[in-house]
């Protein structure tokens, strides 16, 4: 199943039993505490907006193996007195050199009187930014590098899934329909992408470990194991030998993977 939460702040997106998020999900009555879902990605404590969950291992693997979907955020900033040059901010964010947003634009610009503020008031700006990387606090880092501190950040969409269409009310947790799940799977490239990832993983292990049992298993399914391609280049976020060897992480156990059908959905 696929679930969606309109996250409020402050709330840590940790699924530790007894935590604030865990209690919210149990209290909603949508899920049972014996089969709690896991979040697909996270949000930091002060960021609000759309957060997806699933208790499907296959959907989690598909989400991870295809890398990060484009996510849309609305960043609200303010400044006392003199107005900012929004075009200069946009230029600085886009030229950060580390991460380039898919898009960035100014949505609203408003001045409000405030006698306590220097200059007699405050300027409020709302920027809409689309970005694919999942680096921690990346939007805050981009604006901070441009000399702007974000006052409030909201994730308004994950690929084609829109916050206001799914869960418009803050603090609401729902189970998504089959059409929403199908839309997410389509955005991720479909189940064929997961099958390709699984085959790539097994081929890597077979070539690196020279496992006779695994080679026989793959050949019985018509899989060519003679290729030299690295699946890391096709699936940058997946957990096969290619990535694990590069990142020096624990290698995948072939005895565990080989017993799972390639065609499993």
Features:
single chain, 265 residues, alpha+beta, 9-stranded mixed beta sheet, 10 helices, 9 strands, 33% helix, globular, disordered C terminus
Q: Which spans of ≥5 residues are poorly predicted at pLDDT below 50?
A: 232-265
Mean pLDDT: 78
Class from helix and strand fractions = alpha+beta
Q: How would you sum up the global shape?
A: globular
Q: What are the secondary-structure elements, in order, as H or E?
A: EHEEHEHEEHEEHEHHHHH
Rg, please?
Answer: 22 Å
Helix fraction bin: 25-40%
Put simply, the count of helices is 10
Reported for the largest beta sheet, the result is:
9 strands, mixed
Strand portion, in percent? 15-25%
DSSP strand count: 9
Distance between the termini: 13 Å
Structure description:
The protein has helices spanning 20-28, 57-65, 86-94, 138-145, 163-166, 178-187, 191-209, 212-220, 241-247, 254-257; strands spanning 2-7, 38-40, 48-54, 71-80, 103-113, 121-131, 152-158, 161-162, 173-175. It is of the alpha+beta class. Helix 2 (57-65) packs across helix 7 (191-209) and helix 7 (191-209) packs antiparallel against helix 8 (212-220). Mean pLDDT is 78; it is low at 232-265.
């Amino acid at each position: 199943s696929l679930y969606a939460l309109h996250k409020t702040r402050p709330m840590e997106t940790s699924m530790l039993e007894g935590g604030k998020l865990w209690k919210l999900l149990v209290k909603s009555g949508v899920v049972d505490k014996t089969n709690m879902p896991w979040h697909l990605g996270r949000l930091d404590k002060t960021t609000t907006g759309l957060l997806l969950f699933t208790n499907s291992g296959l959907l989690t693997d598909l989400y991870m193996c295809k890398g990060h979907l484009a996510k849309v955020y609305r960043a609200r900033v303010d400044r006392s007195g003199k107005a900012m040059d929004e075009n200069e901010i946009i230029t600085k964010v886009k030229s950060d050199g580390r991460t380039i947003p898919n898009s960035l634009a100014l949505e609203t610009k408003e001045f409000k009187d405030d006698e306590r503020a220097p200059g007699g008031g405050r300027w409020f700006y709302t920027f809409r930014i689309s970005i694919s990387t999942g680096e921690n606090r990346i939007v805050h880092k981009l604006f901070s590098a441009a000399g702007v501190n974000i006052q409030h950040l909201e994730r308004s969409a994950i690929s084609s899934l829109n916050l206001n269409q799914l869960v418009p009310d803050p603090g609401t947790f729902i189970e998504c329909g089959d059409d929403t799940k199908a839309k997410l799977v389509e955005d991720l490239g479909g189940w064929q992408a997961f099958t390709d990832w699984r085959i790539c993983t097994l081929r890597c292990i077979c070539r690196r470990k020279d496992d006779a049992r695994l080679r026989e298993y793959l050949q019985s399914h018509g899989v060519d194991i003679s290729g030299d391609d690295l699946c890391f280049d096709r699936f940058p976020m997946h957990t096969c030998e290619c990535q694990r060897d590069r990142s020096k992480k624990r290698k995948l156990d072939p005895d565990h993977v080989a017993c799972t059908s390639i065609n499993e959905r």
